[in-house]
Design goal:
- The protein is α/β, with parallel strands linked by helices.
- The protein has a single domain, classed as Phosphoenolpyruvate-binding domains (TIM Barrel, Alpha-Beta Barrel), CATH 3.20.20.
- Helix content is 51%, strand content 14%.
- It has twelve helices and eleven strands.
- It has a nine-stranded parallel beta sheet with strand order 1-11-10-9-8-5-4-3-2. Strands 6-7 form a two-stranded antiparallel sheet.
- α9 links the parallel β9 and β10.
- α2 packs parallel to α4.
- The longest helix is centred in the C-terminal third of the chain and has 20 residues.
- The radius of gyration is 19 Å and the shape is globular.
Length: 276
């Protein structure tokens, strides 16, 4: 990707966070990203789970980092829209190593990325988490691209909704903003009252994840979320459809079970390049 194009996409991605809430769907390979762009989404994110599974590894930083970077690059090279990368905890033991990881993923074409505070079954000490966000911000400044640093906290995801978790999440949001976060991802939060209180007290965009059975996009938006993603939801839906079809095919050997509203010509049209 040309540097000028990446700079332009980074600005566009930042601008999306300044207006009304937007839906940021998650892809796991080039064609899934192209399908989302074709459907009119103004930006696309990766899903660490979907991408890891597509590479043949479990989620949770199990995929080799060079393969993750290459996967991001393959998507960024064909996607005609801003791409945000889910790099989990950064594939890094130290803040110094995280700095280098961020430079690599931005070099692959990402104009945003998530960096989470989860560590094992808990969360990192606040000082450590902030040092890593600061290192990520320093790496972004080094690239010269206005990359969106999205600090994710797993407080609600790991410890549920309570007065204590809301207080701790609020403390972390404030600290992450001070450390250089462009936005904060309240992963696992579906309580709209808490979201509304936190949004009113936070100077940067907050984002959440939408799931079946949870609040609607409109409800999240009304409560103050600026961005709603879907994590591995679409990837799991696609894999589930493949498994169901495979089961029917194995049981009946009926080739009509392969009928789909997406055909070879559409796949070819999406992935064909000018010099093909």
């Amino acid at each position: 990707m040309r540097y000028e194009d990446q700079v332009r996409r980074a600005r566009a991605f930042h601008d999306l966070h300044q207006g009304p809430a937007f839906l940021l769907p998650n892809a796991w390979d080039p064609i899934s990203a192209l399908i989302l762009a074709k459907e009119g989404f103004p930006a696309v994110a990766t899903t660490s789970g979907g991408m890891s599974w597509a590479l043949g590894f479990a989620d949770g930083e199990q995929a080799p980092w060079p393969e993750v970077v290459k996967a991001v690059e393959r998507i960024a090279n064909v996607l005609p829209a801003p791409l945000s990368a889910d790099i989990e905890g950064g594939y890094a033991e130290s803040a110094h190593e995280l700095h280098d990881r961020v430079v690599e993923v931005v070099g692959a074409g990402a104009v945003g990325f998530n960096i989470e505070d989860r560590q094992g079954d808990g969360v990192r000490e606040l000082e450590d988490a902030c040092a890593r966000i600061a290192a990520a911000r320093a790496a972004v400044e080094r690239t010269g691209v206005q990359v969106f640093v999205n600090a994710r906290t797993d407080i609600f995801n790991l410890f549920g909704v309570s007065e204590q978790s809301e207080e701790e999440a609020g403390r972390r949001v404030a600290a992450y903003v001070e450390a250089g976060a462009s936005g904060v991802f309240l992963f696992g939060l579906s309580d709209l009252a808490i979201l509304k209180r936190m949004a009113s007290a936070t100077p940067v965009p907050l984002n959440v994840v939408g799931r079946p059975g949870g609040p609607s996009f409109e409800a999240f938006s009304s409560a103050g979320a600026r961005r709603v993603s879907i994590a591995a939801g679409l990837a799991l839906h696609a894999y589930g459809a493949a498994r169901s079809t495979a089961a029917r095919l194995r049981e009946s050997a009926d080739f009509d079970s392969l009928r789909s509203d997406f055909n070879r010509a559409q796949a070819q049209a999406l992935t064909s390049r000018p010099n093909d």
